[in-house]
Amino acid sequence: RKSKITASRKLLLKSLMLAKAKEEWDQEIVDKQSEKERYLSERITPLHTSGLSLSQLQDLCRELHEKVEIVDEERYDIEAKCNHNTREIKDLKIKVLDLRGKFKRPPLRRVRVSADAMLRALLGSKHKVSMDLRANLKSVKKEDTEK
């Protein structure tokens, strides 16, 4: 079966698609950068330190230091959560691979084993246990079943 598109046409379409993808990629980078600048301009207010006395400058430094500590604590907490989640994801992936991969269930065969042989297998060959299960059954009279 022959392709309906020639090789040169395929190559042209491929190069056009790559050029379009590159343009979109560059536009996305520019958009992210402008969004970042907009967000930072909203969050960060400019500092006016001119005309402040020494005590006012010290108070301003203390406030800024407290804000930095709060942000640093939040960053540390988020980083710890991310590390915990990545560790948990890695463990779960390993479990999934272990369960999926190497274990193959063998076909089970029916084996007739008497109660004595089963008890011998469970308790070991040292214990000689013979158990007659039918001897312990309750006998039922014919009249009881008719009622």
From TrEMBL:
InterPro entries: Troponin, Troponin_I, Troponin_sf. The keyword Coiled coil applies. GO terms for cellular component: troponin complex. Signal peptide: none annotated. It comes from the Eukaryota. Keywords: Acetylation, Actin-binding, Coiled coil, Muscle protein. GO terms for biological process: cardiac muscle contraction; skeletal muscle contraction. Residues 22-74 form a coiled coil. One of its GO terms (molecular function) is actin binding. Pfam families: Troponin (PF00992). The keyword Phosphoprotein does not apply. Belongs to the troponin I family. Troponin I is the inhibitory subunit of troponin, the thin filament regulatory complex which confers calcium-sensitivity to striated muscle actomyosin ATPase activity. Binds to actin and tropomyosin. This is Troponin I, fast skeletal muscle. It comes from Phaethon lepturus (White-tailed tropicbird).
